[in-house]
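To whoever picks this up:

The parser on our side crashed when reading a file containing two proteins. I've narrowed it down to the boundary between the first structure block and the second sequence. Both blocks are reproduced below exactly, byte for byte. First block:
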Amino acid sequence: MKQRRAAIIFLEDLMDIKVLGTGCANCKNTLSLIEQVAKDKGVAITLSKVEDIKDIMGYGVMSTPGVVINGKVVHAGGVPSRDKVAQWFAA
């Protein structure tokens, strides 16, 4: 008989990550990188894109892509390094 394992994740335990950008290649690469590093590290996240320029400016980000984690801007401008993304998940 096979054993099944289930993980219960509470919504408040998820890291809420937003990638701010209008859809450029760097924004898409940042989104993919965050998704891959989270998967590799086994970190549960919610990941969304914010593409409306007014919403992006509301975070005070003038250079995209920007990354917001749990409401705090942690990166702006250019694709973050894999090591930098991994550090976000280690904190």
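<<boundary where parser fails>>
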Amino acid sequence: MATYVFTSESVTEGHPDKICDQVSDAVLDALLSADPDSRVACETVVNTGLCLVTGEVTTKARVDITAIVRRVIADIGYTGSRAGGFDAHSCAVLVALDQQSPDIAQGVDEAVDHDGDPLDLVGAGDQGIMFGYACNETPELMPLPISLAHRLALQLARVRKNGTLDYLLPDGKTQVSVVYDNGQPVAIDTILISTQHTAQVAGLRQAGAIRDHIRNDLWTHVVAPATADLPLKPERSTTQFLVNPTGQFVVGGPQGDAGLTGRKIIVDTYGGYARHGGGAFSGKDPTKVDRSAAYAARFVAKSIVAAELARRVEVQLSYAIGRARPVSVLVDTFGTGQLRNEQLMELVQQHIDLRPAAIIQNFGLSTICAERGGRFYQDTAAYGHFGRTDLQTPWEDVTTMASTLRQTALSC
């Protein structure tokens, strides 16, 4: 298939599922800031006028979860007349958190396969498979469709919050279709933006006129600035630009749809361009390999591409609950590697420690919340966990490791 179109989507921070991800991660931030040894599995549900926080937590920290919930919802923009039936200050907040199962704790706190090495003492918090991916399509080494979809969603939120487009409301989605020729992006075929808005826009009341007005505004204030520094830009004459295809988008947020933590796992990762192990990230402390090992897998893949040892890499890791060392490590360059896949796997296992305790230590995942003023994971919960240029995430800092891998590879 020499020529094809690939599509990825993103959502704004006001999407119901993303509200939940941010609440769950804000709770995680607060608990880890006060007690870096906290064990957290926090799930959130939102619906009209209701936010439920549930799950399992073991911690010495004491935090006001209700206050955290209201702060997050208010920061997103669900307040007052613009709340759309879901107001941060008046919604019901229910908290139902239990303690972590001791059966799980015993395997995490002391791995069954430890041999005295301190980094062997922490076992994986669950079994599972995790994937990491990187490619040379963008400067951040991410696939172009998801990278552009995130850019559009983030810019959509910016122009809402700074008042440039004061009729926008918090809920929104973006979708980008990119044309590929022989595996390389050559054109942007379609951009779709669905954005919640007030019932009246610029004095207009007729749905068609409102949509045309929003469409022109979004091209000028969202699409153009979000793509200004890209070598491959959408062209107004050739790129299909769809806005609110149903006609209008007034009812949105939790009033329009219930939200749940962990339902946007493809948005959180690679936009469907790479495989996914199925585990969500938000609300989970770093002993949960669904999160920490996925970060490590991205670090491995990005290091290989940054070292120019391959143009495209997918990494799979697997773990067993209570065991420190990965059950398996797989590297696939899809035929783009400078070395055989087996050689790259040897390089990875030689230079990158993939035990949970090592991942946590090397990335500072238990202490990073306190070090950054009590907020870190919440910011990863919207607009993607990978390829972020607006956040300093440790798994994206591959300069040193890429150099190490390249030097070792050249000496082989």
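After patching the parser it read the second block fine. The radius of gyration is 22 Å. Residues 16-101 form a domain with the GMP Synthetase; Chain A, domain 3 fold (CATH 3.30.300.10).
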